[in-house]
Amino acid sequence: MDVTVSPAGWLAWPGHRVRCALGRGGVLLEKREGDGGTPAGVFPARRVLYRADRLGVLVTRLPSAALAPDDGWCDDPGDPNYNRQVRLPFAARHERLWRDDTLYDALVILGHNDAPPVPGMGSAIFLHAARPDYGPTEGCVAIALPNLLALLAELAPGDRIAIAAR
């Protein structure tokens, strides 16, 4: 199954079309670390991380794992773990995956700049829950949590997220 994301802020999969938030920098053909843009392209849905303490058992056919309070993601282009999940504390620049808000209660890791990661070409590109006001992300795609859970129930290995440029 392909999931499509329009630069106008809509995410669609068979039988569904829902509002989405994109990066504060818009959709970019040439993604760079820190530009706030959502990368254009077609990316495999790699795996799911989720807050079992908030969601219980997650329904998905994608590989999945429960998050722990010490989970992070390296976004430091100078570190060998760039664009990889890491354990905290972690000396290089990183993002916490265990958040106080609900944005990362469930997230899909997209296969952007990961095979292998090229330093500076963007990291931590996820499909995750949106803020209530659908405020912009730092480069991810975000939809309402109920929509995300519905999509996760249908996603399977080999499915892709196609993010269109303007």
Summarize, please:
With 166 residues, this protein is mainly beta. It has helices at residues 52-55, 145-154, and strands at residues 2-6, 10-13, 16-19, 27-28, 38-39, 41-50, 64-66, 71-74, 85-87, 94-96, 106-110, 126-129, 141-143, 160-163.
CATH topology: L,D-transpeptidase catalytic domain-like
CATH level-two architecture: Beta Barrel
Order of helices and strands: EEEEEEHEEEEEEEHE
Helix content: under 10%
| Strand coverage percent | 25-35%
Instruction: Give the biggest beta sheet.
Output: 9 strands, mixed
- The CATH homologous superfamily name equals L,D-transpeptidase catalytic domain-like
Shape: globular
Number of helices: 2
Rg measurement, Å: 15 Å
Number of separate strands:
14
Q: What CATH first level would be assigned?
A: Mainly Beta
Point out poorly predicted stretches: none
Which class of secondary structure composition applies to the elements? mainly beta
- Averaged pLDDT: 98
Q: N- to C-terminal separation?
A: 23 Å
Give the domain tally: 1
| Oligomeric status | single chain
